[in-house]
TrEMBL record:
Keywords: Cell membrane, Membrane, Transmembrane, Transmembrane helix
Superkingdom assignment: Bacteria
UniProt subcellular location: Cell membrane
Broad class of the protein's primary localization: membrane
Organism: Pseudaquabacterium rugosum
InterPro entries: ABC_transp_permease
Keyword Transmembrane: yes
This protein's record includes keyword Electron transport: no
Name used for this protein in its record: ABC transporter permease
Membrane topology recorded in Swiss-Prot or TrEMBL: Multi-pass membrane protein
């Protein structure tokens, strides 16, 4: 039971990375913009956050650095695709490649650095409950913030005026423009907000999840987060559930290794990506269902006055 409680706790921790990044990409796509550069954003934010943590010793400063790095790169991406009308898919891939190369270059001097003793968090009283305490109530505060953020985003998109305008821009930018809404500025704000969340996820990886810097340490999590938006049919609550599903698959490989299961480590390492492929294949069998839930103008450029 103790091992199972630890597996649940590790699943929540691993899923938090995907949830935060997935929520950011959801905001982008609800506004009609596809950002394939999440992997690069997260890598640059990871090295920005780790370098800041090394120099300041502050996790909050590290998170702020990651958010800033993600927002700045996303702003550059948004300027290219929204104002200069470059292809969203090609620009996103270029951003991903740039982020991988830039983070590897900048991170060379930080490969031997180690962060200080990590603080241990727990909720008083609740953390002492057998099984439930170790599984649920000894998590980093960011785990609980991701859950709260999911609820807040769901409310924002469905209940607030600004959220409804954001969705309208993703569904029909021409109609939103005709009503007087600044479509391009709304899309840029959505892209920057999404980039900031991807940056927070990247900083969380290097500062909390695995407190060190290794080249390419995001290891495909940006792509999995991108797949999550389709898996969740662009709904925040399903993003969170999907993140925990993929987080559980990721942690299962380490749990099985710890239990001495005789499976090649390479096969176990494939599990998260295999699960992603299987889920996408199952979803793609019903294209009508995807089309009904997908923002109608996703990936389509908007030219005012055209």
């Amino acid at each position: 039971m103790d091992a199972f409680a630890l597996l649940i706790a590790a699943t929540l921790n691993a899923g938090t990375v995907l949830a935060i990044a997935g929520l950011g990409l959801l905001i982008n796509e609800r506004a009609g913009v596809v950002n394939l550069g999440a992997e690069g954003l997260m890598l640059v934010a990871a090295i920005a956050g780790f370098a800041t943590a090394v120099h300041t010793g502050s996790d909050l400063a590290a998170f702020a650095a990651g958010i800033t790095a993600g927002a700045l790169l996303a702003a550059a991406f948004g300027w290219l695709v929204i104002w200069l009308n470059t292809n969203q898919y090609a620009t996103g891939l270029a951003l991903s490649l740039f982020g991988a190369g830039f983070s590897a270059f900048v991170g060379q001097r930080f490969t031997q650095e180690r962060l200080g003793e990590r603080l241990k968090f727990e909720i008083p009283v609740l953390a002492d409950i057998p099984f439930i305490g170790p599984a649920l109530f000894r998590q980093h505060p960011m785990v609980y913030l991701a859950i709260a953020g999911t609820a807040a985003l769901a409310w924002f998109l469905c209940r607030s005026r600004a959220g409804l305008v954001l969705r309208a821009v993703g569904e029909s930018p021409e109609s939103a423009h005709a009503l007087g809404y600044p479509v391009r500025r709304i899309r840029l704000a959505a892209v920057i907000a999404g980039g900031a969340l991807c940056g927070l996820a990247g900083a969380y990886i290097s500062v909390v999840y695995t407190p060190l810097w290794v080249e390419g340490m995001v290891a495909g999590k940006g792509w999995i987060a991108l797949a999550l938006t389709t898996f969740a049919t662009w709904r925040p609550a399903r993003i969170l559930l999907g993140a925990y599903l993929f987080g559980g698959v990721t942690m299962l490989q380490f749990h099985l290794q710890g239990e001495g299961v005789e499976i090649p480590t390479q096969a176990l390492a494939m599990l998260p990506y295999l699960a992603t492929i299987v889920v996408l294949v199952l979803i793609s069998r019903n294209p009508t269902w995807i089309r009904i839930n997908m923002p109608a103008s996703l990936g389509k450029p908007f030219h005012p006055g055209s």
